Structures are given as structure tokens and as C-alpha cells.
Amino acid sequence: MDKLDASIIENLSKNSRMPFMQIARKLKVSESTIRKRVSKLENDGIIKKYSLVVDTNKVGFENIALIGVDVVPEKYLDIAKKLTELDGVKYVASSTGDHMFMLEVWARNGDELRVFSDKLRGIDGVTRICPAIIKDTLKGSL
After folding, report:
1. 47, 75, 85, 130: which has the fewest Cβ within 10 Å?
2. Closest by Cα among 106, 85, 103 to 94
């Protein structure tokens, strides 16, 4: 990956629907160069997917939470699978630090988030959950 690839990624990170012609003009190269580079970045697994950022409030989700989850080590893999299957979970990552897993959860309201949290606590092997409700996103796409 070189400086041109990094510039292509930077442009697509800001708007994944940016036309190749527009990127080519900005970077002063041909459209075919951009097309070939993007194709190679995709084939090499550097660009994994293109995504959509949704204004969660406008689609009815008032509570977005990041939830740290701790589990007994013997159940780690089973719980990891269960977490990826729960309704409302948009993101699951294993992590180091304060918690074994981090979840991003979308809930329509506080009651729905409480029900979700109770369901999470009820999973055999979950020892602790630590939810934090997101008030405002200051940078990024959460």
C-alpha cells in the first residue's frame, strides 16, 4: 500500500459512494487507475466492505449503548457466539482491558434497553455487564 492507496481510502472513508472520477480528479490520476487500485484493495482484503451510517434517532432508536461484558473463561467461546446472535446488537468485539467483550446495542427506548440488559445478565456464564449510553457522537460513525 502506498500514498495513493492511502489517499483513496481516506476519500472513500469520508464518502464510500464518491465516484471514481471525482477521486481521480482530486488525486490527479486517471479514473482507470482509481478503479484498478480500489479493486486491488478489495481483493487484498484491505477494503472489507462499504457501509452506511444511520441517524439512529430518526429511525426510532433513542438509546445507543456500549456495553462491556465479562464472562467466565470456560464459557468464552459459547458466549461469544450467543452475543453475535442477540437482537439489537450491531457490533461485537473481543477485547483486552476492562471487559472481555464490547457490544454496540441499539434500543428504541430505556425500557427496551433494560429488557436487553436483563437478558444479557441471564446468559449462563456472564459475570458482569457495564452499559454506557451514548449521548452524542463527537467524531466517528457510531
Report:
1. 85
2. 103
* CA dihedral (18, 19, 23, 26) positive or negative: negative
Alpha-carbon distance 9 to 16, whole Å?
9
- The residue type found at 130 is C
Domain-by-domain residue ranges, the chain? Answer: 3-43, 56-133
Interatomic CA distance for residues 36 and 100, integer angstroms:
40
Question: Which class in CATH covers the domain with range 3-43?
Answer: mainly alpha
Report the residue count for the chain: 142
Q: What is the pLDDT of residues 20-46, one digit of tens each?
A: 999 999 999 999 999 999 999 999 999
Phi, psi of 59 (to 5 degrees): -110, 15
Write down the pTM of the prediction: 0.81
Rg (CA), the chain: 20
